[in-house]
Amino acid sequence: MRKLYKKKLNKNLLYLLILLSFISLISIYSASNLIGNKSIFFKQIAWLIFGFFCMHLILKIGNKKIYSNYKLLYILGNISLLLLLFFATPINNSKCWFNLFNVATIQPSEFMKIILIITNSIIISKNKNNKEYILIIKVFIVTLIPSILTFLEPDTGMVLIYFIISFVMLFCSGINIKWFTYTFLILVLFLSIFFSLYFFYSNIFIDIFGTNFFYRINRLLDWKNGSGMQLENALISMGSSYIVGHGFNNTPIYFPEAQTDFIFSIYITNFGFIGGCILIFAILFLDFNILNIAIKCKSKINKNIVVGILGMLIYQQIQHIGMNIGLLPITGITLPFISYGGSSLLSYMICIALIFNAEKKT
To answer: Using CA atoms, how far apart are residues 91 and 340, in angstroms rounded to an integer?
Structure first.
């Protein structure tokens, strides 16, 4: 054990992880009573214990062994996404989870995020003499394959995370800024055509993309109207919490998916403005510590890994909080370390373990 932790773990990260775990459990307990499913609280405890065990395992294995098997991990990750389309039982009209004997569910796309970060990191670090456009094509293809499979589930929010991870990693890799200018212009052109068809030629849009995708976009854009019981009730609940909130386990009004998509609303409702400040400062402190580790990393692969994880976390934090307060569209993005979900919690714990290992190499 002493050899394993010869260099002490980052205490700040460890304490923040414990704090966020505590906030998660009290928020999920409150949400479990709201939705009438108390079992999710005990399941989250079990996943949390298993997550710490996996962290210990990864600390023991080390990042180098994981990196050496990145191709195998990438293939297995995509195979699991493909198998979902054929064998997964639909939940809320989506085939995103494998059901394990009605005891737990596993969401492969959560782990695909980590695999994508590792794969992109190695591709970027190996790009020494190749031209930059070749690197961009490689990263794009690596990102596109799981994105298509995940989109078919369908899980549009996760696809967006895949591309944001890749964008952030490429941006921080030091490639010429002109490629991002070209990408921005192409994206603007594509979105202009896309939304022109959606708003003015809906029949053509449906013929190309299908009715299901049309209604998914419709629901995504509906946030700007401030309509929908879920968002309205969450805003009412938070708005009435004032400085100290309604109190632990006291949510005055019901809204769906409180344990996942709207866990931030549950926490603010219970603990108000002061509790919200504590959570946001904890999140910012977490991000700052990870950024500091990324800056200090000497290994290019480890630096890319930490940057990719940080980009993923920041996006999910902004998106989740933004959609909870009505500033961003509701995309089903969970709040890292806080929302209910075994696969998501486990994936974040693995990320922290990779960061711990990366810091030990600085």
So the answer is: 16
pTM for the structure as a whole: 0.89
Residue 175 DSSP one-character state: -
On the 0-12 / 13-18 / 19+ scale of CB atoms within 10 A, 14 is middle
Quick check: 196 pLDDT over 60? yes
pLDDT tens track for 108-140: 999 999 999 999 999 998 887 667 888 999 999
Residue 23: half-sphere exposure toward Cβ, Cα within 13 Å: 27
Q: Is 262 helix (H, G, I), strand (E, B) or coil?
A: coil
Domain boundaries along the sequence of the chain: 11-79+108-360
Rounded to 10 degrees, the C-alpha dihedral 254/260/265/268 comes to 120
Express each pLDDT in 180-190 by its tens digit: 888 888 888 98
Helix and strand element counts for the chain (H, E): 14, 2
The mean-pLDDT minimum among 16-30, 38-52, 202-216, 267-281 falls in: 202-216
Question: CB–CB of 97/107 below 8 Å?
Answer: yes
Among the residue ranges 1-10, 14-23, 133-142, 288-297, the one predicted with the least confidence is: 1-10
In single-letter form, the type of residue at position 11 comes to K
- In three-state secondary structure terms, 54 is helix
Residue 315 · residue 164 · CB < 8 Å:
yes
For tokens 């699991």, the residue is: 80
Nearest to 282 by CA among 11, 6, 15: 15
The total number of residues written for the chain in this structure: 362
Is the bond preceding residue 146 a cis peptide, omega within 30 degrees? no
Q: Does an H or E element contain 80, and which?
A: helix 70-87
